[in-house]
Amino acid sequence: PSKYDGAYIHAEYVFGYLDVIWPSRGCSVKDGCDPPEPAWENERFHDIERPVNIRFGPYKDKLAMYVSGFRADYIWRVTYDGNDSSNRAPKAVMDVSSLQ
């Protein structure tokens, strides 16, 4: 998605995830901010076990992100199809008829 253009994708090996980091305004105490504001904003992107390498390459007629993990015998392919309806939030359903 275009919101990730120019962002930095960080692979967090110890905690096992990818996050996206953008520069933000930031403000330090010397600039008059108390408490200080960070110079970066981040968003958890995807949980992946022990990521160590990120590469971009072709997939069908699009671009995909490929991630390899430490001692993993597979490579994760992360794609975006531009159709937000294919990634809907789950719908919780509960049946209480059998509860006493």
Structure in words:
- It is a single chain.
- The protein contains no helices and 6 strands.
- It is mainly β.
- The protein has one domain.
- A 3-stranded antiparallel beta sheet has the order 1-2-3, with no helix packed on it.
- The chain is extended, with a radius of gyration of 19 Å.
- The model has no long low-confidence stretch (mean pLDDT 81).
What would the keywords be for this entry?
100 residues, single chain, mainly beta, three-stranded antiparallel β-sheet
| Series of secondary-structure elements, N-terminal to C-terminal | EEEEEE
Number of helical stretches of at least 4 residues: 0
What fraction of the residues are assigned to beta strands by DSSP? 35-45%
First-to-last CA distance: 48 Å
The counted number of beta strands is 6
Rounded radius of gyration (Å): 19 Å
- Helix percent band: under 10%
Report strand order across the widest sheet: 1-2-3
Basic shape:
extended
Total domain count: 1
Poorly predicted residue ranges: none
pLDDT averaged residue by residue? 81
Mind describing the biggest β-sheet? 3 strands, antiparallel
Structural class category: mainly beta
